[in-house]
Design brief:
The complex is a heterotetramer of chains A (about 525), B (about 300), C (about 325) and D (about 325). By secondary structure, chain B is mostly helical. Chain B contains 13 helices and no strands. Chain B is globular, with a radius of gyration of 23 Å. Chain D starts with a helix and ends with a helix. Chains in contact: A-B, A-D, B-D, C-D. Chains A and D meet through helix 6 and helix 13 of A and helix 2, helix 3, helix 5, helix 7 and helix 10 of D.
């Protein structure tokens, strides 16, 4: 199709030529080795690097823009535009970044510290989707062309973990095109950066038709080795069945969001293979354990306030059955309300027992509900893997302990506001942890709702003692003491049963069997890592 | 001749006896309807009782023992371990209820407004027919989506699930009243100008009585035809809305919801989850449609 | 009778229904001579229109010709294939229907309908056909024909439309025109004009007319001969003057009695008691026997065949069977 | 005639306003856009600020007035989701939907009329009965299922046709068309069948019923009595008269084709306004939803007007009636 263009691109480096050639030889029947047709459920919402902190958007932008530090498939940090980072020896509130030299933007401009200062400031702007990740930053300053200092409000030992999706733009380009700030909706004007890019990333944007097709070609001037994939055609396909059909019919090469039920069948299909791996996201139920009365219950008090009922809930959930049937084996059942990637996770927290319905029913009766009680269970139906089916299964299990749950499953746009506005008694939520640290969970889910804390704390849980500890975590520089405090907090949270965890999500990518691509824990696969051959 | 014999001898009955298609369609429709109505007694399980389900029974192929529990199901089970056969019966119950109720709703509304327009004439007629025009050309599924949206806003969250099915009925029914109104309006206008009606009006017979005695019986034929086809359409519309995420809760699936769920397993090898409900829906809608076709021809004396 | 234009021989038309076969026309025979006007009368349902439809080959299914034959100039036309029959329709037998309001296609101009028909039957160019159409419209009495030819049917009044229909029926110069109640749907004021027009224009072209009507007055004024149908059977046929002045069949006599004439008291209409039997309940013997004041035992037993009464008259009534009359007279004594 | 058109246009404007008001009223209940617009780290205060900024806290009528005020200038704002001007977004998606709707409408019309005429003329033939029964399958299964089944058979198993998307497109001015490339045409086949099947069944039944009525009319009998050929009678006289009501219904159906395209576009990942709308509903992208509904209303109004004019062309009787009555 676009072979002329390719020849031009991969002829630039001998290595690409070699790899592409080898791949071609290996895949006589497969796709064009240099072009990768990649499909997933949704498109990037925008190409503006700081407007939306959202999965598909960041995933696509990682191919065009780059961050200071990147996240490898094992969850560790790796150098990208920053080659070194450290807390300043003189001032524990200052982060020092040493930048990569010789990096060029797609338009040929040189990458310097000036661009980093500009980009971090842009990411902190009011209209930025990344503002919250940089809320502890006081100022960003350039020391020399390749050194940047970030001054924090207090010691922030884990700040670097927040940077894995904060992309670096070219200051000159942004100023020339009047995109100094991210999209402002109220202004009613479209930002140039929404559809135009100038990054340092491994691919340049060739064409883009939102929600139809985005074409990217390898950037010849990239500082890293030219990837095996020299052209990417990215197509969102919203319907699960159509997405799988497109792979089966050979119209796409890689499908990122594979429905769990299709994994086993695809594995047995000739010419197709599946890569699976854990995602850095856990799925759990939570409930209003604080109010005196529930909104939807048929009893006058709040059953979830009673430890017996919360214990009963932990006894009815059959995580193994959910894993085997609902998730088709594609999940990691766990009682710990955090994924294993996250600092603070322990094997003990993960452990769970077999369900005991008799004991659960007895506990419910003991709590003062001999006939059980009924309550609405809110569930999204378009957000997590098989979210609605998990809730449905849960309804059945709850029923065995005489808890009559009415399932209300609806679109995410209706579900999440219920949690934000405290209009739900009992709900399903999934939580990804981009910083790979427990503090991120505590801040949003455990801390009392006030200021920037507790926005997703739908349990109304409020423990001033814990709040103080959570706030202290942010500035602790002694990582050992900090880890101990995290463990303390988790002990209390587990004891109070704030969360009823179901499992950690697993990711599955399906691809032609001559393609190798590993699952990325944040579901942000990088096509630079693709290799061809079996 | 007694009543029964007279019915047996009527033209409709004769035409029915001589139409194999109509007979087969009636038998099929009756089997499904009876199965649905009697589901609590006929179905081996109650799939709407979530507490009775064993998740480990999920995805059991038809007639093959489950690998964990060893249970065997005639048509297999779905992703929640529900017996497909029972779920079809219970689901058809929901689908038929929604279908019938939507048809009754639109029929009552349509006949009422049609009579009003035809009888009163003037600006009432113009207004109603203008609304009908707008409604007719505004796509029915959009109307249903919008009504569902409105209802979601007005109804307190805790009651949404209970009223969801009624909202669904109104949504589907509301987009269908125009056809009835048109037919009835036409008939009302024709009858109104006839001498006996004029005479009855002169001697002071109440209009309601005239309408009920003379106009309604005249339009029952075409109304019945529209209602039959409308029933099939309503059942399909319910399924379509379910695909768009609007409809009955998944814990109490209709046939359409069942198909929407089963559709996810088309490529994964669990063909029975979609196949059996689809066949049931196809048979139901097809037989009702065929009956409507036959009825249309049988009631049209000029085509006999 | 070889010089007859149209010969209907023992025509039998049946409708299979779920209650058995209905015989709508039973053993009807008559001839039409070239240029002659034959009136066909009878009550509704007597089979008048069906006879016309059977002749022109447009019986609606499931109706079918079950017996007898129809000859046009000695050639059988009832068993022709569809295409050959189509060539006869319009070309050799024209037809005028009852309701001019519905006989014309509302979506085509008069010109389009005329030209189409003319060109179907004659190898003419569009312009020639148009010229002929205008002449024809002019002839049937449409004022300003050349201008109005491009109007649509709804621009014309009922009477004018029937003139257009006549023009259409005559545009291929048929030898026979079947006019099926051509004035029933019209205002009384234009009825006689239309009848006159049909008569005149057919006479001009030497076309015979089969005038179907239930109006004896029209027959009296227009027809040369008249055929009376009753319950699908021929009751009486003969020259119109004789039949009117001296009806022989009791049914005809009754019909004649029901025309108000100047010689009778206008106020008193003679009604035949009872109604024509339904096709599925025709009595044994003579179909008229339940209503006939003069019926006798044989009328209830045997069906009368038309009896030749001389002067081209025939009557199907046992009263005129020589043996029967004798028997009755004997009984009367 | 002119007065009539002006009157109709005024009525249409009223209809559009009502549609706008109703649809706008509904958006408050679809959900909250804020959650989708900000990352999960955003504080409640941040969310509230954005809500305020977007005017979502304003009284309903204020929001509506602002919306209408901008809409009449062709400004529907910026999509919350894709951050592009809504007008531009919709215009860029419209060709895909219109091509799909027109092709499937055409398919439905051609096959619907063809089968309808055939089944009317051969009323009791076995082929007629087969067509009548089989076509009912088109209205006896939900569209989405038919679409998925077609994908399964023709894309996955046979691999004859593409399963998703629009194939290669060609840009002509502001219009992107898939009709000029082989892959574009191939991509159109399955969605067009899926979308057209239902309409085809409706049109076919309508044509059959109307045709049967027309075939019984006096003017058809009279046409036969004049010796016109079957061809002229069936296809000249009968069909033309049949088409009058068929055109109305088909025209009105075009509106519902565009609406039903929502489902077809979702199943086939067809990049049209229907898929855009559904994605917008999930995201509560109010500006796009409002503009889409206005567009549907506009399309309906235009179609209605065209249908009326077509009527006028086809049926000469109306030319007089319309002029005569007070319209």
């Amino acid at each position: 199709m676009l072979s002329k263009l390719h020849t031009g691109v991969f002829a630039r480096t001998g290595r690409a030529m070699l790899m592409a050639g080898a791949a071609l030889a290996l895949t006589m029947t497969g796709a064009n080795a240099e072009t990768l047709r990649w499909a997933r459920v949704a498109d990037a919402l925008t190409l503006d690097p700081h407007s939306q902190n959202e999965g598909p958007t960041s995933t696509l932008l990682h191919h065009i823009y780059e961050t200071l530090v990147g996240r490898a498939t094992d969850g560790t940090l790796q150098p990208r535009l920053a080659t070194e980072w450290m807390i300043s020896a003189e001032d524990p509130t200052v982060w020092v970044f040493k930048l990569r030299e010789g990096v060029k933007f797609h338009d040929g401009a040189d990458f310097t510290a000036e661009d980093v200062v500009f980009s971090l400031d842009r990411a902190r702007a009011d209209s930025s989707g990344f503002k919250a990740l940089h809320s502890a930053v006081e100022s960003v300053s350039m020391v020399d062309d390749y050194t940047v200092h970030v001054k924090m409000a207090g010691p922030s030992p884990l700040y670097v973990q927040n940077l894995t999706n904060t992309f670096i733009m070219d200051k000159g380009w942004a100023e020339a095109n009047d995109v100094v700030l991210p999209q402002n909706f109220a202004a009613g004007e479209e930002n140039f950066a929404v559809r135009n890019t100038n990054g340092t990333g491994p691919y340049t944007l060739v064409s883009r038709d939102p929600e139809v097709r985005t074409v990217m070609a390898a950037f010849g001037g990239h500082w890293d080795a030219t990837p095996a994939v020299t052209e990417i055609i990215y197509t969102p396909i919203a319907e699960a069945a159509t997405r799988v059909a497109a792979l089966l019919s050979g119209e796409v090469d890689v499908v990122q969001d594979v429905p769990v039920q299709d994994i086993a069948r695809l594995q047995q299909t000739d010419g197709i293979k599946i890569a699976t791996g854990p995602e850095n996201r856990n799925i759990f139920f939570s409930y209003d354990m604080t109010s005196d009365k529930l909104i939807s219950a048929n009893v006058d008090d709040n059953p979830f306030k009673k430890p017996e009922v919360r214990e009963a809930l932990s006894l009815v959930i059959d995580r193994d059955a959910i894993q085997q049937v609902v998730m088709r084996g594609q999940s990691q059942p766990s009682a710990a309300p955090l994924p294993p990637f996250v600092n603070g996770w322990t094997a003990e927290m993960n452990a769970y027992g077999k369900p005991d319905y008799e004991r659960a029913a007895a506990l419910v009766a003991e709590a003062g509900y001999p006939d059980g009680f009924s309550v609405d269970l809110h569930c999204p139906n378009d957000r997590y893997l098989n979210d609605e089916a998990i809730c449905q299964a849960m309804v059945g299990m709850l029923g065995r302990a005489k808890i009559n749950a009415n399932l209300v499953s609806q679109s995410r746009s209706l579900h999440f506001p219920l949690i934000e506005k405290w209009e739900t008694d009992f709900y399903l939520l999934g939580w990804g942890v981009p910083t790979f640290d427990s503090a991120y969970i505590f801040n949003f889910l455990v801390h009392t709702r006030e200021g920037s804390f507790g926005s997703f704390n739908g349990s109304r849980y409020s423990n001033p003692e814990l709040d103080a500890k959570i706030e202290a975590l942010a500035t602790m520089t002694d990582l050992e003491a900090r880890d101990a405090m995290i463990a303390e907090i988790w002990d209390k949270v587990m004891e109070d049963r704030v969360f009823l965890n179901v499992h950690n999500q697993m990711l599955a990518y399906a691809m032609k069997d001559n393609i190798n691509l590993d699952v990325h824990p944040e579901n942000q696969p990088k096509m630079t890592t693709v290799t061809f051959g079996n | 001749m007694n009543r029964l014999a007279r019915m047996w001898d009527s033209d409709i009955a004769w035409s029915f006896r001589h139409s194999p298609v109509a007979i087969v369609a009636t038998v099929v429709a009756l089997i499904i309807i009876m199965g649905a109505v009697l589901a609590p007694w006929v179905a081996p399980f109650n799939p709407f009782d979530s507490a009775s389900l064993n998740l480990m029974d999920g995805f059991t192929p038809p007639g093959v023992p489950n690998q964990f529990t060893g249970n065997t199901y005639l048509m297999g089970t779905d992703n929640q371990g529900r017996d497909i056969f029972s779920t079809i019966l219970y689901g058809a119950r929901i689908s038929l209820f929604v279908g019938f109720a939507a048809v009754v709703f639109s029929m009552v509304l349509g006949i009422g407004l049609g009579l009003l327009a035809g009888w009163r004439g003037g600006w009432v007629d113009s207004l109603l027919m203008r609304i009908a025009d707008v409604q007719l050309s505004f796509p029915s599924i959009l109307i249903a989506l919008l009504i569902f949206g409105v209802a979601r806003g007005f109804i307190p969250p805790t009651m949404r699930e209970e009223v969801a099915i009624w909202v669904l009925i109104v949504s589907i029914g509301l987009s269908d009243w125009v056809q009835y109104a048109r037919v009835v309006r036409g008939a009302a206008m024709v009858e109104k100008s006839k001498e006996y009606v004029q005479a009855a009006r002169v001697i002071g017979v109440h209009p309601t009585r005239i309408v009920l005695r003379h106009i309604l019986p005249n339009v029952m034929g075409p109304v019945l035809v529209i209602a039959t086809i409308g029933l099939a359409l309503a059942i399909i519309a319910e399924a379509t809305l379910s695909f768009l995420g609007v409809g009955v809760p998944p814990t109490q699936p209709s046939l359409g919801t069942l198909i929407r769920i089963g559709q996810q397993y088309l490529f994964s090898g669990e063909w029975w989850i979609i196949l059996f409900p689809s066949i049931a829906l196809l048979l139901l809608a097809l037989s009702v449609n065929l009956l409507g076709d036959w009825l249309r021809d049988a009631l049209n004396p000029r085509l006999r | 009778m070889t010089d007859a234009l149209l010969s209907v021989r023992n025509l039998r038309v049946e409708f299979p229904t779920r209650r058995g076969i209905l015989t709508a026309i039973d053993d009807v025979s008559f001839d039409i001579m070239p240029g002659e006007v034959l009136g066909v009368v009878g009550e509704s349902g007597a089979g008048k229109s069906l006879t016309g439809a059977a002749i022109i080959g447009l019986l609606e299914p499931p109706g079918r010709i079950a017996g007898g034959e129809i000859l046009l100039k000695g050639q059988r036309i009832d068993d022709l294939d569809a295409e050959s029959m189509r060539r006869i329709r319009g070309k050799r037998i024209g037809m005028v229907f009852q309701d001019p309001l519905t006989s014309l296609n509302p979506l085509y101009t008069v010109a389009q309908q005329l030209i189409e028909t003319i060109r179907t039957h004659a190898d003419l160019s569009e312009a020639e056909a148009r010229a002929r159409a205008i002449a024809l419209l002019d002839r049937v009495g449409i004022p300003a024909a050349a201008r109005r030819i491009d109007d649509y049917p709804h621009h014309f009044s009922g009477g004018m439309r029937q003139r257009v229909v006549i023009a259409l029926a005559l545009c291929a110069e048929p030898e026979l025109v079947i006019a099926d109640e051509p004035t029933t749907a019209l205002d009384v004021s234009v009825q006689s004009q239309i009848i006159d027009l049909i008569k005149e224009i057919c006479a001009e072209r030497g076309a015979a007319v089969m005038l179907i009507t239930h109006d004896m007055g029209v027959i009296a004024e227009t027809a040369d001969r008249v055929a009376v149908l009753y319950a699908g059977r021929l009751a009486e046929i003969g020259p119109v003057r004789e039949v009117i002045t001296a009806a022989e069949h009791p049914y005809t006599a009754g019909l004649m009695g029901s025309i108000p004439t100047l010689t009778q008291d206008n106020a008193r209409l003679v009604q035949i008691p009872g109604a024509m039997p339904r096709l599925n309940a025709i009595p044994q013997g003579c179909a008229f026997n339940p209503r006939c004041e003069r019926a006798f035992d044989r009328c209830f037993r045997d069906r009368p065949d038309p009896i030749d009464r001389g002067d081209g008259r025939k009557v199907a009534c046992w009263l005129y069977d020589a043996a029967g009359v004798a028997a009755k007279e004997k009984a009367d004594v | 005639m002119l007065a009539y058109i002006i009157r109709r246009i005024l009525q249409s404007v009223l209809v559009m306003l009502v549609v706008a008001l109703v649809s706008f009223a509904l958006f408050r209940f679809v959900g909250d856009p804020i959650n989708s617009m900000v990352g999960q780290e955003a504080t409640i205060a941040d969310r509230e600020a954005l809500r305020e900024q977007l005017g979502l806290n304003d009284p309903f009528l204020t929001q509506f007035a602002t919306f209408i005020g901008r809409a009449v200038q062709g400004d529907f704002g910026i999509s919350y989701r894709l951050q592009q001007p809504v007008m531009e977004l919709i215009l860029s998606r419209l060709p895909a939907t219109l091509e799909l709707a027109l092709v499937s409408g055409l398919l439905a019309f051609v096959f619907g009329v063809g089968f309808g005429v055939y089944t009317a003329l051969r009323r009791n033939g076995w082929l007629s009965n087969t067509i009548m029964t089989v076509s009912l399958i088109g209205v006896s299964l939900p569209t989405f299922l038919i679409g998925v089944l077609l994908i399964w058979v023709f894309a996955v198993e046979l691999q004859w046709l593409p399963s998703f998307g629009r194939g290669d497109t060609v840009q002509i001015g502001n219009w992107t068309t898939g009709l000029l490339t082989p892959s574009g045409r191939a991509s159109l086949v399955l969605p067009a069948i899926t979308l057209g099947l239902y309409q085809m069944t409706l049109i076919m039944r309508l044509v059959r019923a109307e045709m049967l009525e027309v075939l019984r009319t006096d003017y058809i009998k009279f046409a036969r009595a004049r010796g016109l050929s079957n061809r002229a009678v069936h296809f000249g006289h009968a069909l033309k008269n049949t088409m009058v009501p068929v055109i109305t219904i088909t025209g009105l159906q075009l509106g519902s084709i565009i609406a039903f395209a929502i489902i077809t576009e979702t199943v086939f990942q067809w990049p049209g306004v229907g898929a855009l709308f559904i994605n917008s509903v999930r995201f509560v992208d109010v500006p796009v939803m409002a503009a889409y509904l206005m567009l549907i209303a506009l399309v309906f109004v235009i179609i209605n007007l065209i249908v009326d004019l077509l009527y006028y062309v086809v049926d000469p009787r109306l030319r007089v009636d319309r002029a005569a009555t007070r319209h």
